[in-house]
Amino acid sequence: DIVMTQSPLSLSVTPGQPASISCKSSQSLLHTDGQTYLHWYLQKPGQSPQLLIFDVSKRFSGVPDRFSGSGSGTDFTLRISRVEAEDVGIYYCMQGLYFRTFGQGTKVEIK
Amino acid sequence: EVQLVESGGDLVQPGGSLRLSCEASGFTFSDYWMTWVRQAPGRGLECVALIMSDGSNKYYPDSMKGRFTVSRDNAKSSLYLQIHSLRADDTAIYYCVRDVRWGMSDSWGQGTLVTVSS
Questions:
Q1: pLDDT tens sequence across B57-105
Q2: Is the minimum CB–CB distance between A20 and chain B shorter than 8 Å?
Q3: With contacts defined as CB-CB under 8 Å, which chain B residues touch A49?
Q4: What backbone phi and psi angles, to 5 degrees, belong to B5?
Q5: What is the per-residue pLDDT for B96?
Q6: H/E segment holding residue B37
Q7: Do residues A96 and B104 touch, judged by C-beta distance below 8 A?
Q8: Interchain contact B105–A (C-beta under 8 A)
Q9: Is B108 within 8 Å of A54 when comparing Cβ atoms?
Q10: Residue A94 is inside which H or E element, if any?
Q11: Where are the beta strands (DSSP E) in A8-74?
Q12: Which candidate in A26, A29, A34, A71 could, as Cys together with A76 as Cys, close a disulfide (CB 3.0–4.6 Å)?
């Protein structure tokens, strides 16, 4: 099984400041089709998870451009350029190459 | 608008069985693979089953094989999850999730709560 490891597990950010979350996979997520099957989800308090970023760096429909994703192979990063109050919640990375597994989640809160 | 509405969650005794349902609307259900994902209280997310658009192939993580059965009825735009021999660690919210392709989910239902306790 592919293991997904996120860090940090919690983050307290001042509004307007940037934030960064790391996600590492135990195996490369590069598919033979050339895509890398690494996606990011946000679960806001009391809600279901929602897709933010797919294929490492593509923003899903309606996702603000302050969210960006980067990385390759086994190392990935989600960045929020300027955190807003509505960004609080738990962020999960997920690999979709071999079935699917999620990272442990990173809880983001506002200072 | 894509809507996924789960039902069937309940308080069940250990060893019991349960069938969860998910009714889909707002899209052509038969065109999409579907997944069940669960979240234990205060825990992360865990995929429990995946089914192809025509129901011909199903996938389960090794830890779920044997007790979980996913199925669908495309005529009713419905997805199902049968769970047998329920254990306390099956206690979780079970989400119905739409896949836009292998390994990528874009829409989630609100979930249904399964509690396993005597």
A1: 999 988 888 899 999 999 999 999 999 999 999 999 999 999 998 888 9
A2: no
A3: 45, 95, 108
A4: -120, 110
A5: 98
A6: strand B33-39
A7: yes
A8: yes
A9: no
A10: strand A89-95
A11: 10-13, 19-25, 38-43, 49-54, 58-59, 67-72
A12: A71
